[in-house]
Design a protein that fits this description.
By secondary structure, the protein is mainly beta. The protein has 2 helices and 13 strands. Helix content is 6%, strand content 40%. The relative contact order is 0.25.
């Protein structure tokens, strides 16, 4: 795997290191050893799939309150998304800053987010499927979220005609510590 740093410490874009021949290619999607060397959580305990019928579906911004944070390794396996992570580490120099990356079945990139980040994405094509692995089990009582367009973060979502957002995500309050 090829590790690319982002503007936020601890957030990485992972790229497949492809070994190609006439059949196609083989690649190691991720390696616990290599993630450990980066100093990040690497023991994934659940894998989740999210399917989205329509372009413009926005999911987020979601996180789990401490101590139940989930580091995530996100990959789009069908279609394309604009994936966003927001730094919620109060002691971080990049607290409340965000990073956004286009992930697609075509580019095969993955985004690694630490456990104390909020996560969300918007689909850029119809029939999009997202697969993400997490380092902790889901804890409903620690589930939190804030509005996708909260001015505290000024996330620059890719321009889309009409967003499809469920009631819960639409009605989240602005972020509070």
């Amino acid at each position: 795997m090829i590790v690319n740093n982002t503007s936020i410490v601890g957030v990485f874009v992972l790229e497949l290191e492809r070994f190609e021949d006439e059949r196609g290619f083989f690649a190691n999607a991720w390696s616990e050893k290599e993630l450990d060397a980066l100093g990040v959580e690497s023991r994934f305990v659940e894998g989740n799939v999210s399917f989205n019928n329509r372009r413009g579906t926005l999911r987020g911004m979601h996180y789990q309150a401490a101590p139940y944070g989930q580091a995530k390794l996100v990959r789009c396996t069908r279609g394309s998304i604009y994936d966003v992570g927001v730094d919620l580490r109060e002691d971080s120099e990049t607290f409340k800053q965000w990073v956004g990356v286009e992930l697609s079945a075509e580019n095969r990139l993955m985004l690694y987010l630490p456990g104390d980040f909020a996560h969300g994405y918007v689909t850029l094509s119809d029939n999009t499927e997202v697969h993400y692995q997490v380092t902790g089990v889901y804890s409903p009582e620690s589930g939190r979220g804030f509005r996708w367009n909260d001015p505290a973060f000024d996330i620059h979502w890719l321009a889309l005609d009409a967003l499809k957002i469920n009631k819960r995500d639409r009605e989240y309050p602005n972020f509070k510590l």
